[in-house]
Amino acid sequence: MGYFGIVVSNLAVRRAGEYDALAIAAVLRQAFAEFEPKYTAAAFAATTPDVAMVLERLREGPVWVAVHDDQIVGTVAVVSREQECYIRGMGVLPGARARGAGRQLLAAVEAFALESGAERMFLSTTPFLHRAIQLYERNGFRRTPQGPHDLWGTPLFTMVKNFNVKDQGA
Fold first, then answer.
1. What's the whole-model pTM score?
2. Residue 153: Cβ-neighbour burial (10 angstroms; 0-12, 13-18, 19+)
3. How many Cβ atoms sit within 10 Å of the Cβ of residue 52?
4. Could you give the CA distance from residue 59 to residue 5 in angstroms, rounded to a whole number?
5. Could you say which of 35, 119, 125, 151 would form a disulfide bridge with 43 (CB–CB 3.0 to 4.6 Å)?
């Protein structure tokens, strides 16, 4: 298949279940493997949770997976906090990037956030994940000075997408 070999219509996003935990852990590990040297060991471990941690995340809030040809190629998790949704654990396999999985995963999160009455979504990312940052910016996220600024010695910054119009300048 060529670069555009995956047809977006063959890509589906669905809620994950416990039976997906092993695949989710594998996707996150593969999604971040090329960046491992830029993380501290502890930060990389936190970014690429094992199956037990994925199962814990499934209990803490919804997790979605992007599926192509019955293979999980991406994932994202959310924790709802009062009127905001914290996005974490978003990763897409290198071979599936730039084919709509990240955008569709963010759309699922946004639909959930709006249905939940959230006023904003936020996430933390590292400054070296350039493609992810571009995806977030294209989907309305903006950098904020709010922390955290560090994950076990690896630099972070926070990005926010507000839904409440009067807060758009914040």
1. 0.88
2. exposed
3. 10
4. 35
5. 151
- Distance, in Å, from the CA atom of 64 to the CA atom of 43, rounded to the nearest integer, reads 22
- C-alpha to C-alpha distances, 124 to 12, 127, 158, nearest whole angstrom: 25, 10, 4
Q: Which amino acid is at 77?
A: A
Mean pLDDT throughout 52-80? 95
Cβ within 8 Å of residue 30, ≥6 positions away:
91, 93, 94
Q: What are the structural domains, with CATH classification, of the chain? A: 11-167 (3.40.630.30)
Q: Which residue has the tokens 């910016």?
A: 137
Structure tokens at 84: 């905001």
The tens digit of pLDDT for each residue in 13-52 reads: 999 999 999 999 999 999 999 999 999 999 999 999 999 9
Handedness of CA 29, 147, 105, 138 (dihedral sign): negative
Question: What would the two tokens of residue 103 be?
Answer: 């955008």
For the record, the structure tokens of 86 come out as: 């914290």
